[in-house]
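Task 17 of the worksheet. Students: predict the tertiary structure of the chain below and write it out as structure tokens. Keep your answer in the requested format; marks are given for formatting as well as content.
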Amino acid sequence: MADKELEVLKKQELETAAESTKGSPIFVPKVDIFEDKDALTLVIDMPGVPNEGLRVNLENNELSVYGKVNVEAPGEEVYSEFSVGDYSRSFLVSEYIDREKIDATLKDGVLRLRLPKVEAVKPRKIDIKAG
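Model answer:
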């Protein structure tokens, strides 16, 4: 049996050519994407983001997610291994997604986006008639 080392993943900071007017970093949240016959589900890790700090927008074919973190320090920082910052991530949405039925829920720092497929794309069983 091979030994496995614990791999520590650092938060990836958002890279953009634009200048930020905010002093704190903006991170790219980790995402898992699941598909079933009816929809795509995105599970996005956004710890520290309250409901009122979350923005989900769909413009043209781009679905963008932005989470503002409100963390108050309990005192003067002496040492920190945890970086606090907001979250931002964007996805291109195909014409196979029903834009009117997209829904979002945020619970315990995890955002779930459900992107239903349009009826024409859903797989269906074709009945065979005796001839």
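Marker's comment: The domain at 25-70+84-116 is CATH 2.60.40.790 (Immunoglobulin-like). Residues 98 and 126 are 23 Å apart (CA to CA).
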